[in-house]
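Contributing new records

If you add data, match the layout below exactly. Sequence lines come first and carry their own label; structure lines follow with theirs. Keep one chain per record. Anything else will be rejected by the validation script.
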Amino acid sequence: MKFVLNQELVTVELEDASTTVLSYLRTQKRSVGTKEGCASGDCGACTCLVGELEKDTVSYHTINSCITPLGAIAGKHLVTVEHLAQEQIHPVQAAMVEYHGSQCGFCTPGFVMSLTAFHNALFTNADNTHQQPTREDVSSAVAGNLCRCTGYRPILDAGMAACQSPAPQLHNSEVRHWLQNLDALDDTPYYAPQTLAEWSELKSAFPAARAIAGGTDLMLEVTQHYRDIPQLIDVTQIRELRVFELTDKKLILGAGLSYTQLAERCSSVFPALTAFMPRLASPQIRNRGTLGGNIANASPIADTPPILLAMDAAIELNNAAYQRRTLPLDEFYLGYKQTQLAKNELLVSVRIPVAALTHFHRFYKVSKRYEDDISAVMGAFRFHIEKGVFKEARIAYGGVAATPLRVKSAEAALIDQTMDNENALANALQNLADTLEPLSDVRASAGYRLTIAMNLLRKAWLEANGEHLPDLHTTAYSGEVGYA
């Protein structure tokens, strides 16, 4: 396989599909500026940039190199912290020095790379070139980076200061030429089909090969459990999995779209999903993780399945014989980590009825940290209201059972009732209490989860009735409370 590392064209004889970018950098290239902190995509110390050629520009985004397979970088531009200081140090690096943004220094390269990605986007986007970012913008840019020395204030100061000065592009004409002409993967155990037909051929030839999209969960088998994955089929380049289409009846979302791509493309047609995305993991994870992966992984605490359940989503599946079937998401989950997805099937797309997008809907996530955290309870609600009466209700949760689920008995308690009927709400809440059996774990007790689940339904009901309730997110730097 071939890719560009900083300003070097690299050819790698990739023998192990589960080799990570971080492992390659530190053990094979001795490029040790990129650090290993958690090896699970949580701390951001290993943050690198990946550039991809898109039409006439090279677009860069951050990744956690500790859980990114090296094969996923084929044909792309990998940028590490060593690349930033060329003729002179990068404005982000200079500002980190001037504002004392480095304490023990272990997390510093990761912060520098996240701020560099933000800085690069600011000065390469014509719409943003002359806009001074806010402190909250900078804070969001480093939401996936942890500083164990609690040095966030000077880091944010440095980020604000760095955005006053432009910097050289992260690539030159030679790098661009390489990206235009690379024959990326050749004779490796890491496959990257471009179409479903190619995927079907590969899956038939290598039935034991694992499918990988962002790998933000799958690669933990490698980094946390020390397992080898002999063959991987990367599905993120399959054209049919990258669709985004709005018809008169359906919004079709490709399963291979990353969370970042979803946020960008849904901003006008499904703005509530775009607004929710900052609550999902970190920028690095959102750049890699995919909608299909979040669904098919079947975690009971996944954030998007409750939203999709509330929106009456259906999923399209394709098998290695190139046969397709469509299934309501409500029928997909069978038990903990168990789904109807067959071993030779691939999740292709998600389909949301357009009518559902016009109804009242709210999505709430409760977690210990506002950013980059797993939910204790995720609640998603949709109400179709006509003339003050609930004609349709969807109440879905994550984190309160072995699977994401709808509580249909609670929904039935609201249907055909006036929207301000408190007795109907009380019946729905009682149905939640009778139905939900949450577990206790390190994130929350069963009693806490049940109380939160009931209160989230009450909050959605109040907001449907016109109440303006506070958003409890308080920014760490100003103490200001924002309102929805």
